[in-house]
Amino acid sequence: MAVTGDDRKVNRMEVLVWVTEATWHACVAAMRDHVSSDAHVTLLYVADDDVPAAAKGALAGLLGRSSGSGPDPAARVRELAAQAGQDLLGAAAHETGREVAL
User: Fold this and answer.
1) Contact 11, 1 (CB under 8 A)
2) Tell me: the pLDDT tens digits for 13-41?
3) What is d(CA 22, CA 99) in angstroms, rounded to the nearest whole number?
4) Phi-psi region of 72 (alpha: psi -120 to 50; beta: other; left: phi over 0)
5) DSSP 8-state code for residue 23
6) How many CA atoms lie within 13 A of 9 on its CB side?
7) Which runs of E-coded beta strand occur in 8-101?
8) Are residues 56 and 72 in contact, defined by beta-carbon separation less than 8 angstroms?
9) What is the chain's percent helix, strand, coil content, to nearest 5?
């Protein structure tokens, strides 16, 4: 975001912090140590879609022993992954000690 006034240009830093289960503590600590308090910070979590696909593929591995009439396991895994991602973002946001976008 650029704001002009008195022929000066002031830029506000935009910071994107990618959080994962394994590294979010270190990423948030680095953000706290190196990013100015007036910067706009966004936390991002990206779920891997390979896991739900593997859950769905597991039924095919039953070689006909699954009727296929039950609930799609990929949908449940996706739902659990989404909730886990939201929980992780919430914990990371709390640990930043500042207002952040998710």
Assistant:
1) yes
2) 999 999 999 999 999 999 999 999 999 99
3) 23
4) beta
5) T
6) 4
7) 8-11, 14-18, 40-44
8) yes
9) 45, 20, 35
